[in-house]
């Protein structure tokens, strides 16, 4: 097992942001430093004339940054010092060289929010103001009851975020104020209205009817909506007060979970866009795209659906929109020929691709189809300007590239690679020794699996041990994007299978809803049939040490079922933060998941369209959902715990002790139960606990231990 191989595979720079100017791309990359066990950010400028780049510079202390529409001004949210002496600064720069304003906000609020759900750093069109979101300042009085008040966190992946506050900074006068409003909602993804310093559009996050704040990461079915905020600048608000009052109004209907507002201004017309899916039900369903003309006024009744959810696409046709956590790109607008369009990445089967959407009639065109059977996944658009866009693409065996697209008048798109990772000749040669293809599973549509194999083994007709890694969710997808852990396992001498089962995104809404109420049956059946098909076509074979499993979250749920229901098939399994007993929801931040995915009603009510404050109608009252004996019985029998007595495979459990999504006790209790049942083979059951790690186990050291131990666990099964 080569630690050096893992280190080099994971040290590949990952593009995280880019800003497209007239003659240069300013790009940021995340890199892993295994020596210091940290993730670092570097920046470089890339010339659009020669595609040459400046030497990398490390970005230190920058939490978030954004350029104004003119490209002349840049806002930076910066943190410096250690936890005991943390300073927070808001900076405005001119042409990246002159510091125009710097305000110390350390005593005004807590941490800055730069995540996909609340990031609101942007300039107004006049470039006189910026908005951003930060944590409300905690009470400091020793005997204050306020500091012990119950405040709910926003769940997994949003550590330390309880009370987001929207701030407005007039950098020319150095005045910083919070925006206050009278509505039970928290705002994020805010942006200014067209040609206005007083109007803001934002995503509003609400609680469930029992005032429970459900986790939002990866969950797009929450009670959320698009809101209009109008800052009241009367005499009362022109003093030196620390806050400004806003009038708020909800623009979207209560049955839709809406997010990702974007304002497009072109040819004297301004359009508000956003994405939606149904409130409640599947956590990640097919999205719809809506538009509203806001040129002269905001009339929600005039909302149009540009792109509707696709129920069952014909073969090869557009399957619907499946967006990332960040939603639509921050600047999605492009002008092409005589028309106005937006571009966005979307999950399409086992890959991400870029689509072009007409703002006139919602027509969708794929810009990055598969060509010459080269499987590329286009995972992000990080910048657009005019008819140009900067994207990130990769394949499972080719690391991330930053590419510049130029939309030609004839309908063509030309792509130029402006940055790519530099690998050692040895590692590049080893990656070139792997082949990737997508295998459809007969009679199980839309089930398919991404298969990574060694070319030399294929030529020698040698069948390597096969590791199947089903994704979590369950409404997610395995895609052909670069994955260092998958490459690492393949280079360790394994065939790797990444199945997409019924319920996966990217295939149409029909197949997402087909899994509701069938978890533990339909998805498990798809996974076992994918393994059987690989055996049938000679890509895998049965026998001790030949069929192996790895997976986390709902993927771990599937593994628990597979080793319990098919003990004669699988020799070994590695489960990361798995769901073992769906009836034990305890500390989970998404308690509705344990109801809705198993077809148990968990209605989520939302504030109505037109809500402006407590004097208007509120959300409907809904009784709390409680795990009754009848509910528990159904969930128990749909869970892996019901099959634990039949498990014979060796099992490695990898548990983050700070997981807020799946209670760590699920994996811990499974470990102890297996140890009690397997007294004759205690070495076949092992568990590692990662302090401070959450659901993804994505810390630098934790991730490394996870995958090195996984490989070593499987290597001991080699025969």
SSE topology sketch:
Layout: H1 3-10, E1 14-20, E2 24-33, E3 38-47, E4 57-59, E5 62-67, E6 73-80, E7 87-94, E8 98-104, E9 122-123, E10 129-135, E11 164-170, E12 175-180, E13 186-192, E14 199-205, E15 224-231, E16 243-250, E17 256-266, E18 269-278, E19 288-293, E20 304-307, E21 333-336, E22 339-348, E23 351-358, E24 364-366, E25 377-385, E26 388-395, E27 398-407, E28 413-420, H2 425-432, E29 434-440, E30 448-454, H3 455-459, E31 466-468, H4 484-491, E32 495-500, H5 509-513, H6 522-536, E33 547-552, H7 554-565, E34 572-576, H8 593-596, H9 629-637, E35 650-656, H10 664-677, E36 685-690, H11 700-715
Parallel strand pairs: 12-16, 31-32, 31-33, 33-34, 34-35, 35-36
Antiparallel strand pairs: 1-2, 2-3, 3-4, 5-6, 6-7, 7-8, 9-10, 10-11, 11-12, 13-14, 14-15, 15-16, 17-18, 18-19, 19-20, 21-22, 22-23, 23-24, 25-26, 26-27, 27-28, 29-30, 30-32
Family: Belongs to the peptidase S9C family.
Domain Peptidase S9 prolyl oligopeptidase catalytic: 483-716
Subunit structure: Homotetramer.
């Amino acid at each position: 097992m080569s630690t050096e191989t893992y280190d080099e595979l994971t040290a590949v720079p990952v593009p995280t942001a880019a800003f497209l100017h007239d003659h240069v791309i300013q790009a940021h990359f995340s890199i892993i430093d295994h020596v210091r066990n940290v993730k670092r950010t570097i920046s470089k400028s890339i010339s659009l004339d020669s595609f040459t780049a400046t030497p990398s510079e490390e970005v230190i202390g920058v939490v978030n940054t954004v350029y104004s529409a003119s490209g002349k001004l840049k806002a930076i949210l910066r943190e410096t010092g250690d936890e005991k002496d943390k300073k927070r600064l808001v900076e405005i720069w001119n042409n990246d060289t002159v510091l125009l304003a710097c305000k110390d906000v350390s005593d005004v609020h807590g941490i800055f929010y730069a995540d996909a759900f609340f990031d609101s750093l942007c300039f107004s069109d006049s470039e006189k103001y910026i908005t951003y979101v930060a944590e409300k300042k905690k009470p400091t009085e020793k005997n204050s009851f306020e500091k012990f008040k119950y405040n709910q966190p926003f769940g997994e992946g949003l550590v330390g975020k309880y009370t987001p506050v929207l701030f407005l900074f007039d950098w020319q006068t150095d005045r910083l104020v919070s925006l206050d409003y009278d509505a039970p909602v928290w705002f994020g993804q805010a942006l200014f209205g067209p040609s206005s310093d007083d109007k803001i559009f934002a995503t509003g996050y609400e609680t469930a009817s029992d005032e429970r704040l459900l986790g939002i990461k990866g969950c797009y079915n929450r009670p959320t909506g698009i809101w209009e905020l109008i800052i009241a600048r009367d005499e009362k608000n022109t003093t030196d007060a620390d806050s400004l009052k806003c009038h708020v109004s909800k623009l979207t209907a209560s049955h839709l979970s809406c997010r990702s507002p974007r304002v497009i201004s072109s040819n004297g017309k301004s359009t508000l866009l956003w994405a939606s899916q149904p409130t409640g039900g599947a956590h990640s369903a097919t999205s719809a795209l809506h538009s509203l003309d806001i040129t002269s006024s905001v009339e929600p009744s005039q909302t149009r659906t540009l792109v509707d959810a696709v129920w069952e696409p014909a073969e090869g046709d557009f399957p619907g929109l499946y967006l990332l956590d960040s939603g639509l790109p921050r600047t999605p607008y492009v002008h092409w020929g005589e028309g106005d369009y937006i571009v966005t990445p979307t999950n399409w089967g086992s890959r991400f691709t870029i689509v072009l959407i007409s703002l006139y009639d919602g027509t969708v065109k794929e810009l990055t189809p598969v060509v010459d059977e080269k499987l590329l996944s286009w995972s992000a658009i990080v910048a657009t300007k005019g008819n140009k866009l900067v994207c990130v693409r990769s394949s499972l065996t080719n690391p991330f590239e930053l590419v510049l697209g130029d939309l030609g008048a004839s309908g063509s798109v030309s792509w130029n690679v402006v940055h790519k990772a530099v690998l050692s000749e040895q590692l590049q040669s080893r990656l070139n020794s792997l082949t990737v293809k997508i295998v459809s599973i007969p009679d199980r549509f839309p089930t398919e699996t991404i298969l990574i194999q060694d070319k030399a083994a294929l030529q020698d007709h040698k069948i390597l041990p096969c590791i199947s890694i089903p994704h979590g969710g369950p409404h997610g997808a395995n895609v052909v994007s670069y994955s260092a852990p998958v490459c690492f396992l393949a280079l360790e001498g394994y065939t790797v299978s990444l199945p997409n089962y019924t319920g996966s995104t990217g295939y149409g809404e029909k197949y997402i809803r087909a899994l509701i109420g069938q978890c533990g049956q339909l998805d498990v059946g798809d996974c076992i049939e994918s393994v059987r098909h690989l055996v049938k076509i000679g890509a895998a074979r049965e026998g001790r040490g030949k069929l192996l499993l790895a997976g986390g979250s709902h993927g771990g749920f599937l593994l628990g079922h597979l080793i319990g229901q098919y003990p004669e098939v699988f020799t070994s399994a590695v489960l990361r933060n798995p769901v073992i007993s769906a009836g034990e929801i305890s500390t989970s931040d998404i308690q509705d998941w344990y109801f809705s995915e198993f077809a148990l009603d968990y209605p989520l009510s939302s504030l109505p369209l037109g809500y402006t404050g407590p004097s208007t109608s509120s959300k409907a009252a809904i009784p709390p959902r409680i795990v009754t004996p009848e509910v528990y019985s159904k969930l128990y029998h749909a869970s892996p715990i019901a099959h634990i007595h039949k498990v014979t495979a060796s099992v490695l459990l990898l548990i983050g002790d700070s997981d807020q999504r799946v209670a760590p006790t699920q994996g811990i209790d499974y470990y102890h139960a297996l140890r009690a049942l397997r007294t004759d083979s205690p070495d076949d059951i092992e568990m590692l606990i990662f302090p401070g790690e959450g659901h993804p186990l994505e810390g630098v050291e934790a991730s490394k231990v996870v995958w090195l131990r996984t490989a070593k666990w499987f290597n001991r099964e080699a025969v």
